[in-house]
Each structure stands twice: as C-alpha cells, then as structure tokens.
C-alpha cells in the first residue's frame, strides 16, 4: 500500500494530478479493507453458526430413529399399569405364563404387562412403589445346569452385583424347572431369595414348577392361590369371571407387495435371501447339509449323522457348544388344520397387538400367510396348555364338548385329572383335538394367536472346530411313537432333519441355525485326564472332544488319558461311530474304550455298571490324576445313576461317609471338574 502512494513512482505526474490520484487510491483502499473485513466477518459468522448447530444434530437424528424406552416405570405410568410380570424364558413357556398372569390382572381391577427383562433397566425396581397397588412378578426358567436363560442373564448379573434398596417393592416368583436336573429351579430360588435380601416384600410364596411332572398343573395350582393373596394384600376383589379377551386384531391383506411378506424368517425381512453376520437366535444362518447318513445298522430307530456347512458365515464354535436349529412343521399336519377349519392357508394377514404401547407388535413376524405361520412360527405338535383350551371352548357348538374343554381348563381336581389323561398322557396336539371334537371350529386367526411359538432345537455339537472349522456335525435320533389314541406322533426337528438331502439346490438341504455357547469344555491343560460318559446320542460332544485331543497330539502336545464310557442297545445294531472310535483307540488318542451293550445279554448292562467294574482305575484318575468328568445324555435315569455310582466309588476308595462323598462330588462340580450336558 505504501508503494502505491509514493509520488516517485511517476516523475512526470503534476502535483494536482498526484493529489487526486492519491485520494482515489485511498478510496479504493478503504473499499478493499471494508470488503475484506466484511468478508472475514461473514465467514466467521456462518462458521460460528455451524459450530453451534453441531450439538443439535444427534437430537434431530434420535427423533427419527426408533426409541427404546428402557424405563418400565415410565411405561407403566403412561399406560396405567400397576403389575409387571417379567419372564426369563428359553423355550417360550415362561413368557407364555407371564402373558397369562398379566391378562389375569383385569379380573381384579388391576392392569398388567408382561416384560422381557432384557429390554428394560431393572434398577428401576426400586421406583415401582411410586405406582399405587404395584407388584412385580417374576416367571423365571432355569436353563442348563442352574443357569439363567439368555434374556435374563443381565438381570441375574445385576442382582448379583446390586446394592439397591428394594424396600418398597412387592414381589412374587414362579420358577420353571425340571427335577431330573441337578440344580432344580436354581434361577427361581435365587431371584426369590435375592429380592428379599435387598429388602423387597414377598406377597406370595415361591412357586416351583416341574417340567418332569406336570408344569401346567403346577402353574395353575400356584396361580389359583396367588391371586387371592394379591386381593388380600391390596384389598381388592375379583370383578367377574375369567373372560376371553383378544390380544391381537386380524388384518387381512388383499393387495400386498409380496416382497414385504415374511416367508419363515425369524427377524429381519428377507434375511434368508440376504444373509448378514453376526448370526444368532433372531438372525440364523442358512447352513447347507453336506452329509446326512444313517449311523445304525439295524433296529427300528433311525440314528443319523449330519454335517452343516458354515463356510463364509464367520460362525465360531468350540467343542462342547450347542447348535440350535429352527425346524419346520410337517406340511401334511398344516394342510389338515387348514382343511378342518375351511381356511385358505395362503391368505396374507397380520395379527396386530391391540395394546399400541406394547413392545411386542405381533405374536410372530407379520405380514405372513397362515401356511407360513403354521409351518415355521407356531407349535402345532405339542399338547396345548389349558389357557388355549379355555379360549377355544367358546367356539364349540356342542354343549358337551364346550363343557369338557372348560372343565379341563378349570382348577378343579376333576378337570386337572381329565386334562392330564385326555390331553397330556394321550399326547393330543391341536389337530387331534380338532379331529376328536367335531363341533370345535375356531377362527384360524384366534388359533394362531393362542398357539405358542415353535422353538429352536438344541443339539450337542459332534465335531471339533480345530479339525472342522467350516463344518458343524450333529448326531440325533428320530423321534416317532404311537399315542394312546393310536396316532403316530413324530418329532418335529428330527424328522425334518432326516429329510434334509445333501447336494440338492434349494431349501431342501438348508437348515436355519446358530451356535449357543456352553460351559461344557475340555480342560485348559491338554495333559489333564478326562473321563467321558455318554450312552446313545450322548456320545455327540465326546466325538468332538476326542477329535480335538487327537489334533492336540498331532501338534506335539502331551495329551492326558482320554477315557470313554459309551453305551447302546445292541453291538451290531446301534453302536454309533464304531469305526471312528476304533481308529482313535488304535492311534492311542482314546486310551480306554468301555462299551456297555444293554440288551445283548439276559441282564441289562449300562455305563454305570462298567464304572463300578473299573472303580479302582476311576478313583485313581479322579483323585491322583485330577481328571475331569463329563456326563452327556438322559437326565432322568442315566445321569442320576452315574452320579450315584461316583458317590459309591468316592465313599469306598476315599474312606468317606455317604454325605462326605456327596459333598466331594458336589465340590468337583463347583470346580468345573464334573460337568453335565443332559436332557430329559
């Protein structure tokens, strides 16, 4: 700028001209400066505005995104509820019981809601007393060896760590368990005890349902005493008889885009066409069956070995884990239900929750067809529970049939006995009931609302991921039996798997599956001896264990004694994996192979008899070798008999009394040295 105003730049310029030029230059300079300052200010102004707006962006996004309200208290206040029924459910039964209890509430002038603990912040339990006549009920199933169900794991962890004051909370607990398992109803017992420790007030005694007996009857008996206790506590009375209240309304879609219709997917629409990991219960992987062979050489049963291809799925598993498969119902059963009810099964419909505030918008993925719902989403083969019979009774036009249905759904001793004999023991499913009650013709949409969800089936994985990283193996026996009514009942999953043909394109060879982690694990140190006891298909996880020990040996690791106690009926009929086991023994991986053939001689011989025969060696491995013991198979008889045999061995060789021996084995379990993978 100084150079521009220097007169020495042009010596020929006159003085007046120079002055004028100078004034002009200053004017231009002023304009330039003003423009520059204005530009800088403008730039700063807008830049500043943008910076201020940044914090608002997440708010704008959160409005558009679906909001999951984690406070069940706020939801209860908003919808006028005062009873919340939480459920810990693995197979859907606890959820079903929770729904029944929440529906009961209206009979007493109360309003209930069933809630999945996984969806809410359970620390809000301390605030439940803010709601008048409030009560929390917990329907808690026990899974595996005393574990919480998947959806109750966070709640269980919170209870263990919580130091909350729950003195204002009123509660009741109904547990769902199975007496054949070591830790009967452990979760229900723990929740009941822990809530009391945290200061909560129990308003009715803990209910213990036993699935090995009659779980439905246990629940009804508890429920009919529970509600009078609630009435007495809150000073309320029943407002009338139990009535049928629809939870969902039917919407039939006459003009629908078929790409928006569910065809069997468990969660995301079109998830089977466009597979995306991670794969879990709500997003199963479609695995191709690459092998399906019969394992037994004779006999009436069909025992099979299947291999599922998990290449490119990013699914990882360990020996001892479980594979869950989603089966499909037999199409002939589905068609018969459609025919009896005179329904076009290909009608596209939705069942929409009448409670708009509910997190559960539909009982199963909607919109879909009745055929899809009855094939993939609903359980049509198990005997229906009493609440289903009660709701269906109104549709029986014959007075005798209606009375029979209502009686079976009642809490009267005669009704319970009739339900036990006519439904449970006769194994009558919904189709059999419709066939045997000609006047019972309910609307198919109400039937679909009432039937429970078809659940995934779990199988112990019969392979090692070290040897088969891209394949999961299943060992299973098809379930097929004649009922007291002369009908042939078939197991849903095993018969569906039996018909999965390898090397065929299309759905005929695809299995929706995911892996569930297990605590059934080989010892951390390969040198630790293992004693494996698994008759029948209980051998499944041990095939994986032995494969893994063989692999470890090939890697140059020192592998401890690997002992197997296996049992089957006949040596030349159902001796599973005979060749593989012989090879492992020849290679020195399987150091002992003890096989009990129960029916090849006059007296039956089982695995526990072989354990007794080798009791000195068993004790030496356990006591000196610090061996890990694994039991897989039938919980009702085998697992109990094996455990009793270990009590005897420990008492004899450890010079202990019976109670001391029992305590010794229980301590082995606590330390993870005695593991069970059993079913009933």
TrEMBL record:
The FAD-binding FR-type domain, residue ranges: 282-523
GO BP, one annotated term: response to hormone
Cellular-component GO terms for this entry: cytosol
Keyword Oxidoreductase listed: yes
Cofactor: FAD; FMN
EC identifiers of the protein: 1.6.2.4
Pfam family, one: Flavodoxin_1
Record GO terms (molecular function): flavin adenine dinucleotide binding; FMN binding; NADPH-hemoprotein reductase activity
Protein name: NADPH--hemoprotein reductase
Taxonomic lineage from the root: Eukaryota, Metazoa, Chordata, Craniata, Vertebrata
Gene assigned in the entry: Por
């Amino acid at each position: 700028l100084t150079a521009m105003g220097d007169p020495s730049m042009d010596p020929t310029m006159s003085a007046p001209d120079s002055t004028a030029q100078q004034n002009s230059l200053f004017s231009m300079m002023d304009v330039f400066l003003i423009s520059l300052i204005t530009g800088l200010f403008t730039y700063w102004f807008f830049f500043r505005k943008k910076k201020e707006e940044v914090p608002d962006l997440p708010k704008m996004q959160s409005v558009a995104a679906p909001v999951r309200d984690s406070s069940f208290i706020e939801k209860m206040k908003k919808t006028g509820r005062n009873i919340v029924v939480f459920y810990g459910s693995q197979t859907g039964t606890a959820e079903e019981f929770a729904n029944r209890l929440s529906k009961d509430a209206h009979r007493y002038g109360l309003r209930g809601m069933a809630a999945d603990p996984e969806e809410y912040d359970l620390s809000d339990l301390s605030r439940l007393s803010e709601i008048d006549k409030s009560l929390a009920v917990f329907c808690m199933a026990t899974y595996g060896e005393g574990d919480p169900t998947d959806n109750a794991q966070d709640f269980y962890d919170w209870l263990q760590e919580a130091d909350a004051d729950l003195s204002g909370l009123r509660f009741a607990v109904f547990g769902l368990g199975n007496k054949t398992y070591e830790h009967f109803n452990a979760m229900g017992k723990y929740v009941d005890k822990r809530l009391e420790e945290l200061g909560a007030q129990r308003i009715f005694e803990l209910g213990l349902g036993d699935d090995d007996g009659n779980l439905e009857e246990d629940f009804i008996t508890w429920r009919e005493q529970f509600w009078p206790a609630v009435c007495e506590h809150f000073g309320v009375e029943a407002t009338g008889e139990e009535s049928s209240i629809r939870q969902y309304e039917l919407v039939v879609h006459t003009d629908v885009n078929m790409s928006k219709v569910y065809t069997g997917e468990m969660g995301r629409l079109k998830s089977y066409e466009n597979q995306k990991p991670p794969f879990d219960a709500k997003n199963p992987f479609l695995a191709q069956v690459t092998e399906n062979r019969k394992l037994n050489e004779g006999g009436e049963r069909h025992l099979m070995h299947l291999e599922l291809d998990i290449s490119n799925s990013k699914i990882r598993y360990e020996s001892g884990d479980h594979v869950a498969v989603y089966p499909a119902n037999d199409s002939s059963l589905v068609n018969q239900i459609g025919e009896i009810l005179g329904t076009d099964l290909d009608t596209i419909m939705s069942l929409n929750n009448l409670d708009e505030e509910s997190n559960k918008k539909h009982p199963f993925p909607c919109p879909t067809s009745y055929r899809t719902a009855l094939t993939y989403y609903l359980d049509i083969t198990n005997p229906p529970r009493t609440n289903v019979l009660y709701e269906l009774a109104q549709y029986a036009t014959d007075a005798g049939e209606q009375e029979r249905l209502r009686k079976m759904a009642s809490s009267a001793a005669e009704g319970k006995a009739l339900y036990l004999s006519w439904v449970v023991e006769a194994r009558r499913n919904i189709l059999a009931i419709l066939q045997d009650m000609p006047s019972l013709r309910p609307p198919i949409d109400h039937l679909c609302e009432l039937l429970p969800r078809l659940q995934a089936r779990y199988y112990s994985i019969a392979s090692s991921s070290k040897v088969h990283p891209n394949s999961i193996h299943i060992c299973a026996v098809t379930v097929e039996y004649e009922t007291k009514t002369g009908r042939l009942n078939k197991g849903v999953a095993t018969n569906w798997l039996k018909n999965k043909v390898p090397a065929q394109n299309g759905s005929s060879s695809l299995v929706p599956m995911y892996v569930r982690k297990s605590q059934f694990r080989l010892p951390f140190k390969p040198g630790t001896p293992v004693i494996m006891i698994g008759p029948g298909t209980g051998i499944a996880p041990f095939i994986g264990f032995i494969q893994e020990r063989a692999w470890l040996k090939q890697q140059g690791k020192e592998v401890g004694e690997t002992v197997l106690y296996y049992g089957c009926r006949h040596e030349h009929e159902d001796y599973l994996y005979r060749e593989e086991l012989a090879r492992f023994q020849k290679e020195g991986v399987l150091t002992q192979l003890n096989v009990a053939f129960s029916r090849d001689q006059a007296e039956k011989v089982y695995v526990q008899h072989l354990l007794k025969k080798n009791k000195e060696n068993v004790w030496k491995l356990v006591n000196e070798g610090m061996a890990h013991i694994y039991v897989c198979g039938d919980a009702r008889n085998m697992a109990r008999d094996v455990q009793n045999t270990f009590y005897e061995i420990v008492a004899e060789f450890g010079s202990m009394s019976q109670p001391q021996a029992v305590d010794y084995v229980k301590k082995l379990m606590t330390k993870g040295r005695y593991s069970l993978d059993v079913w009933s």
